[in-house]
Write a structure and sequence with these properties.
The structure holds 2 protein chains of 2 kinds. Chain A is mostly helical. Chain A has a domain of 30 residues. In chain A, 35% of the residues lie in helices and 5% in strands. Chain A contains 3 helices and 2 strands. In chain A, strands 1-2 form a two-stranded antiparallel sheet. In chain A, a hairpin with a 2-residue loop joins strand 1 and strand 2. By secondary structure, chain B is an alpha/beta fold. Chain B has an 11-stranded mixed β-sheet with strand order 1-3-2-6-8-7-12-13-11-9-10, with helices on both faces. A two-stranded antiparallel ribbon of chain B has the order 4-5. In chain B, helix 2 packs antiparallel against helix 3, helix 5 packs parallel to helix 6 and helix 10 packs across helix 13. The two termini of chain B are 19 Å apart. Classes of the chains: A mainly alpha, B alpha/beta. Chains A and B meet through helix 1 and helix 2 of A and helix 10, helix 11, helix 12 and helix 13 of B.
Protein backbone atom coordinates (compact mmCIF):
# COMPACT_ATOMS: atom_id res chain seq x y z
CA UNK A 1 0.00 0.00 0.00
CA UNK A 2 1.42 3.35 -1.03
CA UNK A 3 0.95 6.05 1.63
CA UNK A 4 0.61 9.83 1.46
CA UNK A 5 4.21 10.09 2.67
CA UNK A 6 5.36 7.84 -0.18
CA UNK A 7 3.65 10.14 -2.66
CA UNK A 8 5.38 13.19 -1.15
CA UNK A 9 8.75 11.42 -1.31
CA UNK A 10 8.22 10.34 -4.93
CA UNK A 11 7.12 13.85 -5.95
CA UNK A 12 10.30 15.27 -4.41
CA UNK A 13 12.42 12.67 -6.22
CA UNK A 14 10.64 13.46 -9.51
CA UNK A 15 10.90 17.24 -8.88
CA UNK A 16 7.20 17.56 -9.63
CA UNK A 17 4.30 19.36 -8.01
CA UNK A 18 1.32 17.01 -8.08
CA UNK A 19 -2.20 16.63 -6.77
CA UNK A 20 -1.20 14.27 -3.95
CA UNK A 21 -4.69 12.84 -3.34
CA UNK A 22 -5.24 12.01 -7.00
CA UNK A 23 -1.74 10.53 -7.31
CA UNK A 24 -2.24 8.37 -4.20
CA UNK A 25 -5.33 6.74 -5.75
CA UNK A 26 -3.63 6.32 -9.13
CA UNK A 27 -0.42 4.77 -7.82
CA UNK A 28 -2.30 2.32 -5.58
CA UNK A 29 -4.46 1.23 -8.52
CA UNK A 30 -1.45 0.75 -10.77
CA UNK A 31 0.59 -0.99 -8.09
CA UNK A 32 -1.76 -3.98 -8.13
CA UNK A 33 -2.13 -3.98 -11.93
CA UNK A 34 1.62 -4.09 -12.44
CA UNK A 35 2.34 -7.06 -10.18
CA UNK A 36 4.11 -9.69 -12.30
CA UNK A 37 3.92 -13.27 -11.12
CA UNK A 38 7.27 -14.73 -12.09
CA UNK A 39 6.93 -18.13 -10.44
CA UNK A 40 6.58 -20.03 -13.74
CA UNK A 41 9.37 -18.34 -15.63
CA UNK A 42 12.88 -19.46 -16.28
CA UNK A 43 15.00 -16.48 -15.38
CA UNK A 44 18.34 -18.07 -16.17
CA UNK A 45 20.98 -15.63 -17.31
CA UNK A 46 20.30 -15.08 -20.99
CA UNK A 47 23.52 -13.26 -21.69
CA UNK A 48 22.61 -9.59 -21.58
CA UNK A 49 24.40 -7.61 -24.26
CA UNK A 50 24.88 -3.89 -24.64
CA UNK A 51 23.79 -2.57 -28.05
CA UNK A 52 25.66 0.71 -27.60
CA UNK A 53 28.67 1.47 -29.74
CA UNK A 54 31.84 3.00 -28.32
CA UNK A 55 31.83 6.75 -27.83
CA UNK A 56 33.76 8.95 -30.23
CA UNK A 57 34.68 12.57 -29.63
CA UNK A 58 33.16 14.80 -32.30
CA UNK A 59 32.72 18.57 -32.60
CA UNK A 60 29.98 19.95 -30.34
CA UNK A 61 26.95 22.04 -31.20
CA UNK A 62 27.84 25.75 -31.56
CA UNK A 63 27.41 27.58 -28.24
CA UNK A 64 24.91 30.08 -29.64
CA UNK A 65 22.74 27.20 -30.86
CA UNK A 66 22.86 25.51 -27.47
CA UNK A 67 21.76 28.75 -25.81
CA UNK A 68 19.13 29.69 -28.39
CA UNK A 69 16.19 28.13 -26.54
CA UNK A 70 17.18 29.29 -23.04
CA UNK A 71 14.91 31.83 -21.33
CA UNK A 72 17.97 33.74 -20.02
CA UNK A 73 21.61 33.56 -21.04
CA UNK A 74 24.62 35.84 -20.53
CA UNK A 75 28.23 35.77 -21.73
CA UNK A 76 27.75 32.36 -23.29
CA UNK A 77 26.22 30.77 -20.19
CA UNK A 78 22.73 29.79 -19.10
CA UNK A 79 21.62 32.36 -16.56
CA UNK A 80 19.54 31.63 -13.48
CA UNK A 81 18.41 33.80 -10.59
CA UNK A 82 20.36 33.21 -7.36
CA UNK B 1 0.93 1.00 -58.28
CA UNK B 2 1.29 3.17 -55.18
CA UNK B 3 0.14 6.77 -55.10
CA UNK B 4 3.68 8.10 -54.60
CA UNK B 5 4.98 6.39 -57.76
CA UNK B 6 1.94 7.61 -59.75
CA UNK B 7 2.50 11.21 -58.66
CA UNK B 8 6.23 10.89 -59.30
CA UNK B 9 5.53 9.87 -62.89
CA UNK B 10 3.02 12.72 -63.29
CA UNK B 11 5.65 15.17 -62.03
CA UNK B 12 8.23 13.81 -64.46
CA UNK B 13 5.77 13.99 -67.37
CA UNK B 14 4.91 17.56 -66.27
CA UNK B 15 1.21 16.67 -66.00
CA UNK B 16 1.28 18.44 -62.66
CA UNK B 17 3.90 20.68 -61.05
CA UNK B 18 5.19 20.24 -57.49
CA UNK B 19 3.80 23.69 -56.74
CA UNK B 20 0.31 22.77 -57.98
CA UNK B 21 0.40 19.53 -55.99
CA UNK B 22 1.57 21.33 -52.84
CA UNK B 23 -0.98 24.11 -53.21
CA UNK B 24 -3.80 21.61 -53.63
CA UNK B 25 -2.78 19.88 -50.38
CA UNK B 26 -2.38 23.17 -48.51
CA UNK B 27 -5.85 24.22 -49.62
CA UNK B 28 -7.23 20.87 -48.43
CA UNK B 29 -5.45 21.20 -45.08
CA UNK B 30 -6.74 24.76 -44.57
CA UNK B 31 -10.24 23.61 -45.45
CA UNK B 32 -10.46 20.36 -43.47
CA UNK B 33 -8.02 20.72 -40.60
CA UNK B 34 -10.29 22.87 -38.39
CA UNK B 35 -12.69 19.92 -38.12
CA UNK B 36 -10.04 17.17 -37.92
CA UNK B 37 -7.27 18.84 -35.87
CA UNK B 38 -4.62 16.69 -37.56
CA UNK B 39 -2.05 19.46 -37.91
CA UNK B 40 -0.94 21.66 -35.02
CA UNK B 41 1.39 23.71 -37.25
CA UNK B 42 1.22 24.18 -41.02
CA UNK B 43 4.54 24.99 -42.71
CA UNK B 44 3.15 26.54 -45.87
CA UNK B 45 6.16 28.73 -46.67
CA UNK B 46 8.65 25.88 -46.29
CA UNK B 47 6.41 23.59 -48.38
CA UNK B 48 6.12 26.06 -51.26
CA UNK B 49 9.86 26.80 -51.21
CA UNK B 50 10.65 23.07 -51.48
CA UNK B 51 8.06 22.63 -54.25
CA UNK B 52 9.66 25.49 -56.17
CA UNK B 53 13.11 23.85 -55.92
CA UNK B 54 11.66 20.56 -57.21
CA UNK B 55 9.96 22.29 -60.15
CA UNK B 56 13.25 23.93 -61.11
CA UNK B 57 14.95 20.51 -60.95
CA UNK B 58 12.28 19.04 -63.24
CA UNK B 59 12.62 21.95 -65.66
CA UNK B 60 16.41 21.46 -65.67
CA UNK B 61 16.05 17.73 -66.37
CA UNK B 62 17.80 16.78 -63.12
CA UNK B 63 17.34 13.39 -61.45
CA UNK B 64 14.39 13.29 -59.13
CA UNK B 65 13.97 11.05 -56.09
CA UNK B 66 10.69 9.16 -55.75
CA UNK B 67 9.78 11.35 -52.78
CA UNK B 68 10.67 14.68 -54.45
CA UNK B 69 7.67 16.98 -54.39
CA UNK B 70 5.54 14.56 -52.37
CA UNK B 71 3.49 16.34 -49.66
CA UNK B 72 3.92 14.76 -46.21
CA UNK B 73 3.68 15.42 -42.48
CA UNK B 74 5.73 14.85 -39.34
CA UNK B 75 4.61 14.09 -35.80
CA UNK B 76 5.32 16.96 -33.46
CA UNK B 77 8.03 15.03 -31.56
CA UNK B 78 10.34 14.74 -34.59
CA UNK B 79 12.86 17.56 -34.49
CA UNK B 80 12.81 20.03 -37.38
CA UNK B 81 15.52 22.68 -37.49
CA UNK B 82 13.99 26.15 -37.35
CA UNK B 83 10.43 24.81 -37.02
CA UNK B 84 8.74 24.66 -33.62
CA UNK B 85 8.56 21.13 -32.19
CA UNK B 86 6.49 21.02 -29.02
CA UNK B 87 5.49 17.37 -28.42
CA UNK B 88 2.03 18.96 -28.06
CA UNK B 89 3.03 19.99 -24.52
CA UNK B 90 2.82 23.34 -22.81
CA UNK B 91 6.34 22.85 -21.44
CA UNK B 92 7.87 22.85 -24.95
CA UNK B 93 5.65 25.58 -26.40
CA UNK B 94 7.91 27.79 -28.53
CA UNK B 95 10.83 25.34 -28.57
CA UNK B 96 12.66 25.53 -31.92
CA UNK B 97 15.20 22.71 -32.52
CA UNK B 98 18.64 23.66 -33.76
CA UNK B 99 19.08 20.40 -35.65
CA UNK B 100 17.01 18.03 -37.78
CA UNK B 101 16.06 14.50 -36.82
CA UNK B 102 17.87 12.07 -39.12
CA UNK B 103 14.57 10.75 -40.50
CA UNK B 104 13.44 14.25 -41.48
CA UNK B 105 16.94 15.15 -42.74
CA UNK B 106 16.84 12.15 -45.11
CA UNK B 107 13.39 13.08 -46.41
CA UNK B 108 14.29 16.76 -46.74
CA UNK B 109 17.38 15.88 -48.77
CA UNK B 110 15.17 13.90 -51.16
CA UNK B 111 12.87 16.89 -51.63
CA UNK B 112 9.83 15.66 -49.69
CA UNK B 113 7.43 18.57 -49.09
CA UNK B 114 6.73 19.15 -45.39
CA UNK B 115 3.16 20.39 -44.96
CA UNK B 116 3.37 20.64 -41.19
CA UNK B 117 3.66 19.06 -37.76
CA UNK B 118 0.91 16.74 -36.60
CA UNK B 119 -1.04 16.37 -33.40
CA UNK B 120 -0.14 13.76 -30.79
CA UNK B 121 -0.72 12.82 -27.18
CA UNK B 122 1.52 14.96 -24.99
CA UNK B 123 5.03 13.44 -25.14
CA UNK B 124 3.43 10.45 -26.95
CA UNK B 125 1.75 9.33 -23.72
CA UNK B 126 -1.75 8.16 -24.51
CA UNK B 127 -3.81 6.11 -26.90
CA UNK B 128 -6.42 8.62 -28.11
CA UNK B 129 -4.51 11.86 -28.85
CA UNK B 130 -6.71 13.48 -26.18
CA UNK B 131 -3.80 14.40 -23.90
CA UNK B 132 -2.51 16.86 -26.51
CA UNK B 133 -2.42 20.46 -25.34
CA UNK B 134 -4.11 21.28 -28.66
CA UNK B 135 -7.05 18.91 -28.08
CA UNK B 136 -7.74 15.60 -29.79
CA UNK B 137 -7.41 14.81 -33.47
CA UNK B 138 -10.67 13.54 -34.93
CA UNK B 139 -11.16 10.27 -36.76
CA UNK B 140 -11.77 11.09 -40.44
CA UNK B 141 -14.15 8.10 -40.74
CA UNK B 142 -16.40 9.66 -38.07
CA UNK B 143 -15.40 12.84 -36.26
CA UNK B 144 -17.26 11.79 -33.10
CA UNK B 145 -14.53 9.21 -32.55
CA UNK B 146 -10.84 9.52 -31.67
CA UNK B 147 -8.04 9.06 -34.19
CA UNK B 148 -6.13 6.88 -31.71
CA UNK B 149 -2.74 7.65 -30.32
CA UNK B 150 -0.32 8.73 -29.71
CA UNK B 151 0.35 9.53 -33.41
CA UNK B 152 -3.31 10.48 -33.92
CA UNK B 153 -2.64 13.56 -36.06
CA UNK B 154 -0.30 11.65 -38.38
CA UNK B 155 -2.95 8.96 -38.92
CA UNK B 156 -5.76 11.46 -39.46
CA UNK B 157 -3.66 13.43 -41.96
CA UNK B 158 -2.93 10.32 -44.03
CA UNK B 159 -6.40 8.73 -43.80
CA UNK B 160 -8.10 12.02 -44.77
CA UNK B 161 -5.59 12.53 -47.60
CA UNK B 162 -4.22 15.69 -46.02
CA UNK B 163 -0.75 14.18 -46.66
CA UNK B 164 0.50 11.36 -48.85
CA UNK B 165 2.43 9.93 -45.92
CA UNK B 166 3.53 10.85 -42.44
CA UNK B 167 6.04 9.82 -39.83
CA UNK B 168 4.99 8.96 -36.30
CA UNK B 169 6.65 7.34 -33.33
CA UNK B 170 5.77 3.97 -31.83
CA UNK B 171 6.74 3.14 -28.23
CA UNK B 172 3.93 0.68 -27.44
CA UNK B 173 1.69 0.86 -30.51
CA UNK B 174 1.50 4.59 -31.23
CA UNK B 175 1.85 4.20 -35.00
CA UNK B 176 -0.09 0.95 -35.47
CA UNK B 177 -3.11 1.67 -33.26
CA UNK B 178 -4.02 5.05 -34.79
CA UNK B 179 -3.41 3.55 -38.26
CA UNK B 180 -5.87 0.82 -37.31
CA UNK B 181 -8.43 3.31 -35.92
CA UNK B 182 -8.26 5.57 -38.99
CA UNK B 183 -7.88 2.90 -41.68
CA UNK B 184 -4.41 3.47 -43.08
CA UNK B 185 -1.16 1.48 -43.07
CA UNK B 186 1.18 1.90 -40.10
CA UNK B 187 4.66 0.37 -39.89
CA UNK B 188 6.72 0.13 -36.71
CA UNK B 189 10.23 -0.88 -37.79
CA UNK B 190 12.72 -3.15 -36.04
CA UNK B 191 14.46 -1.35 -33.16
CA UNK B 192 17.68 -0.05 -34.68
CA UNK B 193 16.49 -0.06 -38.33
CA UNK B 194 15.44 3.60 -38.34
CA UNK B 195 17.43 6.30 -36.56
CA UNK B 196 15.99 7.79 -33.37
CA UNK B 197 18.32 10.79 -33.55
CA UNK B 198 16.16 13.88 -33.12
CA UNK B 199 13.11 11.96 -31.95
CA UNK B 200 12.22 13.54 -28.61
CA UNK B 201 12.58 10.63 -26.19
CA UNK B 202 9.76 8.98 -24.26
CA UNK B 203 11.16 5.49 -23.51
CA UNK B 204 14.44 5.09 -25.36
CA UNK B 205 14.68 1.29 -25.39
CA UNK B 206 11.17 1.04 -26.90
CA UNK B 207 10.89 4.17 -29.10
CA UNK B 208 10.93 3.79 -32.89
CA UNK B 209 10.11 6.17 -35.73
CA UNK B 210 7.42 4.62 -37.94
CA UNK B 211 5.70 5.25 -41.25
CA UNK B 212 2.04 5.86 -42.03
CA UNK B 213 0.76 5.83 -45.59
CA UNK B 214 -2.35 5.23 -47.66
CA UNK B 215 -1.17 1.89 -49.07
CA UNK B 216 1.54 -0.71 -48.56
CA UNK B 217 3.74 0.28 -51.52
CA UNK B 218 3.97 3.89 -50.33
CA UNK B 219 4.83 2.63 -46.84
CA UNK B 220 7.67 0.55 -48.29
CA UNK B 221 9.00 3.47 -50.38
CA UNK B 222 9.14 5.74 -47.32
CA UNK B 223 10.61 3.06 -45.06
CA UNK B 224 13.41 2.40 -47.56
CA UNK B 225 14.12 6.14 -47.66
CA UNK B 226 14.43 6.72 -43.92
CA UNK B 227 15.99 3.47 -42.69
CA UNK B 228 19.61 2.36 -42.55
CA UNK B 229 22.60 3.04 -40.35
CA UNK B 230 23.02 6.41 -38.67
CA UNK B 231 26.17 7.11 -36.64
CA UNK B 232 24.21 9.70 -34.64
CA UNK B 233 22.05 6.98 -33.08
CA UNK B 234 24.11 4.73 -30.83
CA UNK B 235 21.57 1.90 -31.18
CA UNK B 236 21.41 2.06 -34.99
CA UNK B 237 22.29 -1.26 -36.67
CA UNK B 238 25.36 -0.95 -38.87
CA UNK B 239 24.82 -3.96 -41.12
CA UNK B 240 21.21 -3.38 -42.15
CA UNK B 241 20.57 -2.42 -45.78
CA UNK B 242 16.85 -2.08 -46.32
CA UNK B 243 15.17 -2.69 -49.66
CA UNK B 244 11.58 -3.69 -49.17
CA UNK B 245 9.94 -2.36 -52.34
CA UNK B 246 11.45 -5.09 -54.53
CA UNK B 247 9.87 -7.87 -52.45
CA UNK B 248 6.29 -6.60 -52.40
CA UNK B 249 4.96 -8.61 -55.32
CA UNK B 250 6.58 -11.95 -54.39
CA UNK B 251 4.28 -14.93 -53.91
CA UNK B 252 3.55 -15.75 -50.26
CA UNK B 253 2.46 -19.30 -51.03
CA UNK B 254 3.71 -21.70 -48.38
CA UNK B 255 4.32 -19.01 -45.74
CA UNK B 256 3.57 -20.10 -42.19
CA UNK B 257 1.40 -17.79 -40.10
CA UNK B 258 1.16 -18.17 -36.34
CA UNK B 259 -1.85 -16.72 -34.52
CA UNK B 260 -1.41 -16.29 -30.76
CA UNK B 261 -4.70 -17.32 -29.14
CA UNK B 262 -4.26 -15.02 -26.16
CA UNK B 263 -4.38 -11.84 -28.26
CA UNK B 264 -7.22 -13.09 -30.45
CA UNK B 265 -9.31 -13.76 -27.33
CA UNK B 266 -8.73 -10.19 -26.11
CA UNK B 267 -10.50 -8.78 -29.19
CA UNK B 268 -14.14 -7.70 -29.41
CA UNK B 269 -16.33 -10.18 -31.35
CA UNK B 270 -16.54 -7.99 -34.47
CA UNK B 271 -12.76 -7.49 -34.54
CA UNK B 272 -12.18 -11.20 -34.02
CA UNK B 273 -14.62 -12.15 -36.79
CA UNK B 274 -12.91 -9.86 -39.30
CA UNK B 275 -9.50 -11.18 -38.33
CA UNK B 276 -10.61 -14.78 -38.85
CA UNK B 277 -12.03 -13.80 -42.24
CA UNK B 278 -8.68 -12.21 -43.13
CA UNK B 279 -6.86 -15.40 -42.14
CA UNK B 280 -9.07 -17.29 -44.60
CA UNK B 281 -7.85 -14.91 -47.30
CA UNK B 282 -4.27 -15.78 -46.39
CA UNK B 283 -5.15 -19.49 -46.60
CA UNK B 284 -6.59 -18.85 -50.06
CA UNK B 285 -3.25 -17.29 -50.98
CA UNK B 286 -1.55 -20.56 -50.07
CA UNK B 287 -0.39 -19.74 -46.53
CA UNK B 288 -0.59 -22.15 -43.60
CA UNK B 289 -2.36 -20.74 -40.56
CA UNK B 290 -1.86 -22.22 -37.10
CA UNK B 291 -3.18 -21.06 -33.74
CA UNK B 292 -0.79 -21.35 -30.80
CA UNK B 293 -0.49 -20.27 -27.19
CA UNK B 294 2.00 -17.76 -25.76
CA UNK B 295 0.79 -16.63 -22.29
CA UNK B 296 3.66 -14.17 -21.85
CA UNK B 297 2.08 -11.92 -24.46
CA UNK B 298 -0.46 -10.88 -21.83
CA UNK B 299 2.16 -10.39 -19.10
CA UNK B 300 3.98 -8.16 -21.55
CA UNK B 301 1.50 -5.37 -20.81
CA UNK B 302 2.48 -4.67 -17.16
CA UNK B 303 6.15 -5.15 -18.12
CA UNK B 304 5.70 -2.53 -20.83
CA UNK B 305 4.10 -0.02 -18.45
CA UNK B 306 6.88 -0.50 -15.91
CA UNK B 307 9.74 -0.11 -18.40
CA UNK B 308 8.14 2.71 -20.41
CA UNK B 309 7.29 4.77 -17.32
CA UNK B 310 10.69 4.13 -15.71
CA UNK B 311 12.48 5.38 -18.82
CA UNK B 312 10.06 8.29 -19.16
CA UNK B 313 10.70 9.44 -15.59
CA UNK B 314 14.40 9.59 -16.45
CA UNK B 315 14.06 11.08 -19.97
CA UNK B 316 11.65 13.81 -18.91
CA UNK B 317 13.98 14.87 -16.11
CA UNK B 318 15.62 17.21 -18.64
CA UNK B 319 12.64 19.58 -18.63
CA UNK B 320 13.86 21.92 -15.92
CA UNK B 321 13.21 25.19 -17.83
CA UNK B 322 16.93 26.09 -17.77
CA UNK B 323 18.15 25.11 -21.26
CA UNK B 324 14.82 25.07 -23.08
CA UNK B 325 11.10 25.04 -22.44
CA UNK B 326 8.66 27.18 -20.52
CA UNK B 327 9.03 28.28 -16.92
CA UNK B 328 6.59 28.96 -14.08
CA UNK B 329 6.14 32.69 -13.41
CA UNK B 330 6.81 32.85 -9.67
CA UNK B 331 9.13 30.81 -7.45
CA UNK B 332 11.42 31.28 -4.48
CA UNK B 333 14.26 28.84 -5.17
CA UNK B 334 15.78 26.89 -8.04
CA UNK B 335 14.27 23.68 -6.65
CA UNK B 336 10.84 25.29 -6.48
CA UNK B 337 11.28 26.72 -9.97
CA UNK B 338 11.80 23.23 -11.37
CA UNK B 339 9.01 21.55 -9.36
CA UNK B 340 6.50 24.31 -10.07
CA UNK B 341 7.37 24.54 -13.76
CA UNK B 342 6.95 20.80 -14.24
CA UNK B 343 3.77 20.76 -12.15
CA UNK B 344 2.20 23.60 -14.12
CA UNK B 345 3.42 22.73 -17.60
CA UNK B 346 3.07 18.93 -17.78
CA UNK B 347 -0.41 17.51 -18.34
CA UNK B 348 -1.99 15.00 -15.98
CA UNK B 349 -1.12 11.86 -17.96
CA UNK B 350 2.54 12.84 -18.19
CA UNK B 351 2.69 13.56 -14.46
CA UNK B 352 1.13 10.18 -13.68
CA UNK B 353 3.66 8.33 -15.83
CA UNK B 354 6.61 10.22 -14.34
CA UNK B 355 5.37 9.39 -10.84
CA UNK B 356 4.78 5.74 -11.73
CA UNK B 357 8.24 5.52 -13.28
CA UNK B 358 9.81 7.12 -10.21
CA UNK B 359 7.92 4.65 -8.03
CA UNK B 360 9.06 1.48 -9.88
CA UNK B 361 12.67 2.69 -9.77
CA UNK B 362 12.60 3.78 -6.14
CA UNK B 363 14.32 2.12 -3.22
CA UNK B 364 12.37 -0.94 -2.07
CA UNK B 365 10.36 -1.32 -5.27
CA UNK B 366 13.05 -1.61 -7.96
CA UNK B 367 13.45 -5.41 -7.60
CA UNK B 368 9.72 -5.94 -7.20
CA UNK B 369 8.80 -4.13 -10.40
CA UNK B 370 11.57 -2.88 -12.69
CA UNK B 371 14.01 -5.79 -12.37
CA UNK B 372 11.19 -8.31 -12.88
CA UNK B 373 9.91 -6.46 -15.93
CA UNK B 374 13.35 -6.42 -17.52
CA UNK B 375 13.83 -10.13 -16.92
CA UNK B 376 10.40 -10.84 -18.31
CA UNK B 377 11.37 -8.85 -21.38
CA UNK B 378 14.35 -11.15 -21.87
CA UNK B 379 12.10 -14.20 -21.56
CA UNK B 380 9.74 -12.73 -24.14
CA UNK B 381 12.59 -12.17 -26.59
CA UNK B 382 13.77 -15.75 -26.13
CA UNK B 383 10.23 -17.04 -26.70
CA UNK B 384 9.91 -15.01 -29.89
CA UNK B 385 13.14 -16.60 -31.16
CA UNK B 386 11.53 -20.02 -30.79
CA UNK B 387 8.24 -18.84 -32.32
CA UNK B 388 9.96 -17.41 -35.40
CA UNK B 389 11.84 -20.67 -35.91
CA UNK B 390 8.39 -22.15 -36.52
CA UNK B 391 6.44 -19.35 -38.20
CA UNK B 392 7.35 -16.73 -40.81
CA UNK B 393 5.05 -14.10 -39.32
CA UNK B 394 2.47 -13.70 -36.57
CA UNK B 395 -0.94 -12.19 -37.16
CA UNK B 396 -3.06 -10.57 -34.43
CA UNK B 397 -5.61 -7.79 -34.16
CA UNK B 398 -3.84 -4.42 -33.94
CA UNK B 399 -6.24 -3.24 -31.27
CA UNK B 400 -8.81 -5.26 -29.34
CA UNK B 401 -11.39 -2.56 -30.11
CA UNK B 402 -12.18 -0.10 -32.86
CA UNK B 403 -11.92 3.67 -32.22
CA UNK B 404 -13.32 5.02 -28.94
CA UNK B 405 -15.82 7.84 -28.79
CA UNK B 406 -14.29 11.21 -27.93
CA UNK B 407 -14.06 11.37 -24.13
CA UNK B 408 -14.98 7.70 -23.61
CA UNK B 409 -11.60 6.44 -22.45
CA UNK B 410 -11.36 8.92 -19.57
CA UNK B 411 -14.18 7.03 -17.85
CA UNK B 412 -13.03 3.56 -18.81
CA UNK B 413 -9.77 2.79 -17.02
CA UNK B 414 -9.75 -0.87 -18.07
CA UNK B 415 -10.09 -0.05 -21.78
CA UNK B 416 -7.37 2.54 -21.40
CA UNK B 417 -5.00 0.11 -19.66
CA UNK B 418 -5.65 -2.65 -22.21
CA UNK B 419 -5.60 -0.48 -25.35
CA UNK B 420 -2.04 -1.51 -26.24
CA UNK B 421 -2.27 -5.19 -25.27
CA UNK B 422 -1.74 -6.45 -28.84
CA UNK B 423 1.04 -4.05 -29.80
CA UNK B 424 3.47 -3.72 -26.86
CA UNK B 425 5.13 -7.12 -27.36
CA UNK B 426 6.73 -5.94 -30.64
CA UNK B 427 8.28 -2.96 -28.82
CA UNK B 428 9.55 -5.03 -25.90
CA UNK B 429 11.19 -7.53 -28.28
CA UNK B 430 12.30 -4.91 -30.83
CA UNK B 431 10.36 -6.60 -33.65
CA UNK B 432 8.91 -4.99 -36.80
CA UNK B 433 5.12 -4.90 -37.00
CA UNK B 434 2.57 -3.43 -39.38
CA UNK B 435 -1.12 -2.57 -39.16
CA UNK B 436 -3.35 -2.84 -42.20
CA UNK B 437 -7.06 -2.19 -42.66
CA UNK B 438 -9.01 -5.49 -42.89
CA UNK B 439 -12.61 -4.29 -42.81
CA UNK B 440 -15.09 -2.18 -40.88
CA UNK B 441 -17.26 -2.81 -37.84
CA UNK B 442 -21.02 -2.10 -37.62
CA UNK B 443 -20.33 1.54 -36.84
CA UNK B 444 -18.31 1.85 -40.04
CA UNK B 445 -15.02 2.15 -38.15
CA UNK B 446 -11.89 0.45 -39.52
CA UNK B 447 -10.45 -2.74 -38.01
CA UNK B 448 -6.70 -3.26 -38.19
CA UNK B 449 -4.83 -6.50 -38.75
CA UNK B 450 -1.31 -6.67 -37.29
CA UNK B 451 1.54 -8.58 -38.93
CA UNK B 452 4.58 -9.12 -36.71
CA UNK B 453 7.87 -10.32 -38.17
CA UNK B 454 11.25 -11.39 -36.87
CA UNK B 455 13.92 -8.71 -36.44
CA UNK B 456 14.81 -6.93 -39.71
CA UNK B 457 12.16 -8.83 -41.69
CA UNK B 458 10.36 -5.66 -42.82
CA UNK B 459 10.56 -6.99 -46.40
CA UNK B 460 8.52 -10.01 -45.45
CA UNK B 461 5.81 -8.26 -43.44
CA UNK B 462 5.39 -5.64 -46.17
CA UNK B 463 5.21 -8.46 -48.76
CA UNK B 464 2.56 -10.23 -46.65
CA UNK B 465 0.66 -6.97 -46.28
CA UNK B 466 0.83 -6.14 -49.98
CA UNK B 467 -0.49 -9.54 -51.01
CA UNK B 468 -3.35 -9.17 -48.51
CA UNK B 469 -4.06 -5.70 -49.85
CA UNK B 470 -4.42 -7.15 -53.38
CA UNK B 471 -6.64 -10.01 -52.16
CA UNK B 472 -8.70 -7.63 -50.02
CA UNK B 473 -9.41 -5.33 -52.92
CA UNK B 474 -10.19 -1.67 -52.84
CA UNK B 475 -11.84 0.11 -49.95
CA UNK B 476 -15.26 -0.04 -51.58
CA UNK B 477 -15.12 -3.82 -51.47
CA UNK B 478 -14.29 -3.99 -47.75
Amino acid sequence: MITENDVKRLATLAKLEVDEKEMLIYLNEMQSKLMIDCSDYDFADRGVFCPLREDKVLPSMPREDALSNAIHSENGFFKLRK
Amino acid sequence: MGKILKLHQMLLRKEISAKELTESYIAKVNNENPALNAYVRVTEEKALTTADIIDRKIAGGLTLDLLSGIPMALKDNISTKGIETSCCSKILEGYVPVYDATTWHRLDEKGAVLLGKTNMDEFAMGCTCETSVFGASRNPQNTGFVAGGSSGGSATAVAADLALFSLGSDTGGSVRQPASFCGCVGLKPTYGAVSRYGLIAYASSLDTVGVMAQNVEDTAVVFDSISGFDPMDSTSQADYVPCTVDSLEKSIKGRKIGVPKELLEKADPEVKALLLKSLEKYENLGCFVEFFSMPNLITALPAYYIIACAEASSNLGRYDSVRFGNRAESFESIHQMICKTRGEMFGNEVKKRIMLGTFVLSDGYYDKYYAKAQRLRQCLMAEFEKVFAKYDVLITPTSPKTAFKIGQIQNDKEASFNADVCTVCANLAGLPALSLDCGKDEKGLPVGLQIIGNRFRESLILNMARQFEIARGTESEL
